[in-house]
Design a protein that fits this description.
The protein has helices at about 40-50, 55-60, 75-85, 110-120, 140; strands at about 1-15, 20, 25, 30, 90-100, 125-130, 145-155. It is an alpha+beta fold. It has one domain: 2-C-methyl-D-erythritol 2,4-cyclodiphosphate synthase (60s Ribosomal Protein L30, Chain: A), CATH 3.30.1330. Helix 1 runs parallel beside helix 3 (about 75-85) and helix 3 packs across helix 4. The protein is globular, with a radius of gyration of 15 Å. The N and C termini lie close together (about 10 Å). The mean pLDDT is about 95.
Length: about 160
Amino acid sequence: MKIGIGYDVHPLVAGRRLVLGGVTIPFERGLDGHSDADVLAHAIGDALLGAAGLKDIGTHFPPSDPQYKNISSLVLLQRVHGLLDERRLRIGNIDATVVAQSPRLAPFIDEMRANLGKALQAGMERISLKATTSEGLGFTGRGEGMAAMAIVLLEEGG
C-alpha cells in the first residue's frame, strides 16, 4: 500500500466559473488559475501522484504550458490515472475536504464524487468528500480563496 497527501489553494476572483470536483457551482466568483483551478481535483491529483512517487501536478502539467490553459482538471485526473495504471497501482480510497466559507457545497458533493470516480475509474464508494468552513478565520474565512486537502491509499497490483 502507498499513501499520499495533497493540498491546493486558489484565490477567488470575479469573472471566472467556480468548478469543484468537475461541477460548475453557481457563485458570483470563481477560482483563479491556469487550468479551471479546481482545488479539489488538484489536491486529489497531488495526493495520487505523491503516493506513486511521481512528484506533483505542476511537474506533469506545468502552468507555463499553454496546452493546459483552462483545461478541465478532470482531464488532468484521467491522465494521472493513466500514470497509476502504467505502474499497476489502483485506488484503494480517497478522502478529501474542501475549505470554503461560501457557497454551501453539500448539495453538490454526490455529483463531485461521481465526476471524480468517472475520471479516476473508481467507484463512488472509494471516494469520500467533505466541505467545511474555517469559521471566518484566515483567507478562506474572509472569502478570499478556497483550499482543499486529500489523502489517498493506493494498492499495488491493480
